[in-house]
Amino acid sequence: MPQTPPTDPTFRPEHNPLIFDPKGGMPRLRAIMRALRDPDHGCPWDIEQDFASIARYTIEEAYEVADAIERGDMNELKKELGDLLLQSVFHAQIAEDQGLFNFEDVADGISDKMLARHPHVFGNESRDKSAAQQTRDWEAIKAAERAQSGAAGALDDVALGLPALMRAEKLQKRAARVGFDWPDIADVTDKIVEEAQELAEARERLTQVEIEEEYGDLLFVMANLGRHLGLDPEVALRAANDKFTRRFRGVEAKLAEIGKTPAQSDLTEMDGFWDAVKREEKSDKT
């Protein structure tokens, strides 16, 4: 049963009773956001926000969704998906307040896009083709959409706000589609050696800004190597981060067994424990 709206004298009719319905679903969430943004009776913080001010929260929520998936925590995933959904509703409400578009426009737009990009499901095209062919068809449809939107260059609509490694991979994929790519993985590894050498030399003779540029070049080529290997560099680096975290915690545990902390140890001792943790991990896998 819906809860009775509060009897607080500041309560106004625009605070729809739907807000207090625990089973109100999507309409309830949108009503809550409209109330939060109400210029007379809403929340001052929510009223002050704009697209730019909440953009970072949108990015953070997307990462927290990915984190819950990676940890296999389905209860947390449900919560994080709600947080991410709230961000979409928030942006759409800001747009509606400014007379730009509303949530229905957003939902209709993505629905239209899904119909257009799946003619083998919603149209007359045959579903009797490989996943690889469907991927090629998907990219062809996306290319046509970009052309229709006025994106003339191959890299025109690669989002600036993507994480740097992810954006590097997308830029390289786009360039590769028009033939700007090394034909063999050996060319990529040769370029990595070249860039690493340039970085080593830069430390001796260049400014910090120039060193940063050389370091960026090396990271960019490393992302390209991942693409040639069929790997997602963002996923690979996340896994490496997790591995480092797990092993360093193992080092801390071994130090704790002898009554020490890392600050009370030295590199030689910690490196020995690191090797021991690695051996134990390998032993557990066999």
From TrEMBL:
Any coiled-coil regions, as ranges: 185-212
SUPFAM superfamilies from the UniProt entry: all-alpha NTP pyrophosphatases
Pfam families: MazG
Gene3D superfamilies reported in the protein's UniProt record: MazG-like
Enzyme class per UniProt: hydrolase
GO molecular function, one term: ATP diphosphatase activity
Alphabetized InterPro entries for the sequence: MazG-like_dom, NTP-PPase_MazG-like_C, NTP-PPase_MazG-like_N, NTP_PyrPHydrolase_MazG
Keywords, in A-Z order: Coiled coil, Hydrolase
UniProt-listed Enzyme Commission number(s): 3.6.1.8
Name this polypeptide is given: Nucleoside triphosphate pyrophosphohydrolase
Source organism of the structure: Litorivita pollutaquae
